[in-house]
Amino acid sequence: MYATYDDKNLYFLFKCYNDRPGKYITTSLRRDYRGGSNDGISVIIDTYQDKTNAFLFGINPFGVLREGLITNGGEGRQDYSLSWDNKWTGEARILDSIWVAEIAIPFKTLRFKDGTRSFNMNFYRIDTKYNERSTWAHIPRNNQIFNLAFLQEVTFAEPLQKPGANVAVIPYASLNGYQNNLSGGTESKEQGGGYGIGGDVKVGITPALNLDLTINPDFSQVEVDRQVTNLTRFELFFPERRQFFLENADLFANFGGRNARPFFSRRISIARDTLTGQNVSQPILFGARLSGKVSKDLRVGLMSMQTAPVEEANQPSLNYSVAVLQQKVFTRSNIAAIFVNKEDFQYNDANPGSFHYNRVAGLEYNLASADNVWTGKAFYHYSLEPDNPDSTYSYGVKLTYNKRHFGATVLHQAIGNNFNAEVDFVPRRGFQRFSPEVNFRFYPNGKVINRHGLTLRADVLYDYNWRKTDHKLSAGYNFFLQDQSFLFVFMNEEYIYLKYPFDPTRTGGTPLPANSSYTYKYASFMFRSDQRKRIYGFANGSAGQFFNGTCYNLGGNVNFRFQPYGFIGIDVQYNSVKLPEPYASADLFLVGPRIDITFTKSIYLTGLFQYNNQIDNFNTNIRFQWRYKPVSDIYLVYTDNYYASDFSPKNRSLVFKITYWFSI
Which residue range(s) make up the domain with 8? Predict the structure, then answer.
């Protein structure tokens, strides 16, 4: 590996040796490839040297690029996102027994303090022929390969200066047509179309502080969510995919704990129709976000978004604002504060039933030791609204110890009965949670098993009268094989006390009664095959008791890769829920064929088809993308929804969109 720089770019040259016969592996030619089944080189750059946040740039032997953001120190897979896009270049070439790559990363793409003399970096290579991962800075095996605790310092010959004006204007224009057979909650048909004009502006206030502006943003090109069969009593979490909300997203999104997030950006532009009770889209008029570092140890985040009124849903124009401060302490830890405000600035006291405001304030301490052995957090959040009741708090404490052969986590969390953060992801309130977990890991020197280990965990919930409402006890063993496949097996016991009637099938059948309790046991497993093969897949399942009946579940996917042009696959979930009369039983199917074709490294076609009889829906999402210039795209997106029972149409839309990145 060779590295150099000038006043505009960082440059890297990689020579990757491999004398084994066979082809290198790539999922497709699509930008932002992911997974240990792809050959490639990745560069991690921590410009702030806080070992908490970093940029990632990667290239594979076919010249496919990827860029992303690493947050929260790179503790887990959820802290690594490839949804972020920016300008940089790279090329690769395959030669005899070697492949080489060159990349150039503009300093304008990075965020750093003016006068910086060094960055923290790491480089890692995935070699599928040898099934080997190698890193420049040593990463202990019990950590993620992109963990930031172990980065090494790279010093520049001269201090880095501000790379000139750093302004990007990204306008878009779109045309759309739609047909809605469910207009106004009836079977009447509504159809039409129109056009949209808007865009984003990115301004580098300093090399470390960025201002993002958006006017009439459009997210029609974002791929639809993968559907999941839901047999729980609560809402499921789906991650943010919209580009405007992604850069420095950890500043806003990492507050709270499991199912206790005081701010969740996907709530913005979603309103509830007061007539039908259904969620409706509420367009964003404009917004701004200021984020980055104002000093070596202090990060700030300010965001404000204004939505348009939706008269047919009786929703006013709403403002969503968030303010965040994060002060680094010790080597990798920080203290952070957040304030979230959702408000109707035109609220009229003459209409007391209308929405006025909802606010949340919170403090957190995030712990990360220098060697990453100890991590954790402690937080306290408080919600405020007119005529604020009591018990409007949320707090939690988590501590994790992680060594090569042993790991342990203890967690305590509580959410008050009346905690109400309307821009949150808090699917459940009025409980106290206690969750210990221990892991034992073993690393044999064998040709088949790479590592194996035992996991014991408990999750116990009480209400505020100290009545136990839930528990889940699990004991499992895992095997990771040398060919990258793995197998997990678990034995589980669950206890649930129902405060309210609940239909476990969620199909509208006779619910189980309120104030009833159930204890049931079942076995579960997860398996993933060798992803280097042309045909590979994942499977999971469970079998055993379920409330006062049984449930047999089998799911997973099978994929066929026709390298390097893409893959076809199918996701399947089957749940057979059998409860005694008169309660609801159901056979629930979720089938999702997928196709991803990359004609070139800049022209892509994807198709996702989802049949889900639990919600009586069949969805199609077909998306064509041409990246005709760096970070400039043309999209053509078709989406429709049908009733799964008889395939009569619900709605459909067709969108054409073009974007262009102007650097000033």
Answer: 2-155
